[in-house]
Fold this sequence. Notes:
Number of helices: 6
Largest sheet: 8 strands, mixed
Helix content: 10-25%
Shape: globular
CATH class of the largest domain: Alpha Beta
Strand content: 35-45%
Amino acid sequence: CTKGRPTRITVTKQDGAPPDEPVMLKILDCRRKDSTSYRTKRSTLSMRDGVLHTRRFTKEEYPDDLVFFVRAKDAKGRVSPVMALNCAPKSDVYSKTPQMITRGVTKDPARSMAFAWFTALDVKKNVLKIWREGESERTARRIPARPAYAREWVERVMVNHTRVDMNREATQFDVEVTNLLPDTSYCCRFGGPEGWSEVFFCRTLPESIERLDAVLMADAQIGENEPHYAEYAKLMEQAIRRAKAPYVMLSTGDMVNAAGKQDDYARTLSVAQKHFAGEVWIPTPGNHEWEHIREFENYKSHWNLPRRGDALTDELLYSVHMGPVCFVSVPGYGGSLPMHFVNEVEKELADASANKPDWLVVLLHSSPYGKSGETFNPRYYVPVFEKYGVDLALSGHDHLYVRSTMWQGKRVPVGEGITYVSLGFTGPSHDRNCRFPWQDYVFGDNPAHVTKDGKPDPFCSMASFTKDRIVLTVTTASGVLVDEVVLEKAPN
């Protein structure tokens, strides 16, 4: 809610559908940021089809960041959690020039590109300008971007013993451009009359790929450790220099420390903006991209990823075929999810395996066989992985390196089951191991192994995929070889 602007509030069922019953929104309390009570009418507002348009929460005379506590209730007496809405001041947190630009993978990365970015709330129109490298910008195609509402918090405070996020609103844009030429370098610029980004160089993938390299980026979670943002960018550069074209960027989740925090995303993306805008990214979300009530909403605002037409799993669950390998992003962030996710994962893996890729690789944040001993992923996802012939599962979450090869609940040699790998960390924090019988190899349990000159020595990982072989090479930033895993196809 931004002061002076109308607010649109939507209530849905868990599956994203409109409510079946009439819904009322009750204002329970109103407080200043310092928790003192603010005199205003405690009214009940009717929400037609679960949608309310109102200026009730954004009057110009309200104090900055006035907090309203509200709750939705339907005709059967069912209620939502209590939610806090803050009347945000007009802010310059977001500029009119596009910022936090990301390039997400598409279903056809040889002929299309997809991007997302943020601007100030009052920017209503943006376009992508794209032209072949070496040609004049005057030849650019102009592709209109789709605007959407976004919000992130800039401060987290306690108001009347309740944690409240002080949000700021923005416009998010996304765009997909098609009919591009394979294996071709393009120049891209984002914006409109109110401001243009710099030019970014983006290349489509070849139509036919015999070998694909992947740069593997595990948990960053830098947060307030300001000096490490520059180290994160250096690590990314180091890993990219090792890759041979064509290559893609894989993120196993927890790129940020706080899911909805504005400057976590701003600092992480800006420090390596040319790579986030220029490279093909295949991300999967982690627990630090999930937040209470909004769940993965802010994560999805920052990416433009393949959609399946399913509100709960769009941009979280998807598959992409690239030469010898099919990557499948599986939402497995370390907590329990509705069984709907399990059913949809099975559908996606069934479709992916039906195309008979040489290698089927899943990305999920929390390994079923890492250091955590969690229950949801091994109980519900592993049987589906085994059913459809997954070869390799790449994960983060553990903040140390763990490799396990399992089949039907038992340890087996590499190549005889699914190899599960937790890829350590790319940020400032490492963790200790919790020992479990499925672990074949662990590195980083001893802090001295992941420390160099008194500073964290994060992981720098690469994978190469050909028709007959996967080679996974894991080192630390200082060059210590952690592990090399080779998976080979058995001769027919």
